[in-house]
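[User] Once you have settled down, look closely at the record that follows, and write a paragraph about the fold.
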Amino acid sequence: MEKIKIMHLIGDLTKGGAERFVVDLCNELAKDDQYEVYLVSICWNDPQETFVKDIHKNVRYVSFNKGRGFSLKAFLGLTKWLNREEPDVLHSHLNGFEYLALYLLASKHTLFFHTIHNIAVAECPNFILKTFRKFWYKINKVKPVTISFDGKKTYRDYYQLDNDILIENGRQDLVTTDEYPLLNEKYKEGEDAFILIHVGRIVSEKNQDLLIRAVKKFNVTEDKKCKLIIIGEVKEKHLYQHLLKLVGNDPYIEFIGGKHNVVDYLSIADAFCLSSIFEGMPISLIEALSVGCIPVCTPVGGIGQMIRHGKTGFLSKDVSVESYYDVLKEALYHPDKKMIKLNGRLFFKLNYHIQASANAHLKTYSTMLISDKSNMVKGYQMITKI
């Protein structure tokens, strides 16, 4: 039997939530022998700085080695390669969409999908690109995939369309690495402080300014202090410089850059902190739930769908420093944190395991493929009757 060819296309595999999800999803899809799974990256990926080394051997990895900025060579090379390969399903993510322009025009047999990983306006703020994408969504040549109820609403408001497919994100089971004992010794043993972990790129939407100010206020007013460890690559250098000045010589706040072993840090933490001003469905939050690290988050995007306050985590009332300080106190001094940790793990298993997300993707693909073939047969029958 000929295998069904599924391709996931993304700009690059830098250390971000969407990139992490795409690698996990491809790895999970490739476990089934009836699918031939490709992970296609437009850009070159450094094995040490990206998720490329996490790609399973059953997944066919292809890169067009683009550098910064638009590349006509990569654009034409991708189109030529896709015309030759003719995937059954081609699913794009982030800025991979526009590189499909010529293939979208030429292909008559490929099913196209695009996942909107953030609120719609943040994912595609450019008016020209929005118009381009809306055209393909409207004629149903590209099926839009949203990842949360909030994401669904923002898609419908932004594009004035109601044809999206909701498929939630997921993450595989996480296992601590050999570095865990060393981190535990460094941060936990002999230290009388709450360990807080923030995982997120240094960008304005993650709002690390609010988190730092709330932690500083906590440490000024409370006897027991918080040690905040900020994990994430610097994407906005001017913002990073501002945050460094805000932190100053505070010994309780530390920037450590991007890390491959985030699970080790989450496993030693008293809480996972996310202070974003908008979100889709954060992979970092799913990771925190999976290891029973109590999430303390702002109530934005899909986060409210993932956290039941006081049951699986804690939500601030708004995105103010005062509100986040209050919820941080509530979480860290909660009398039954063991129950919340357990609830988080169970909630992850039932709702956000990568297997559940992969099954939902495959069900969507197979339904659309069957429908597509049925329409082709009907069209052929109509032609033969004429």
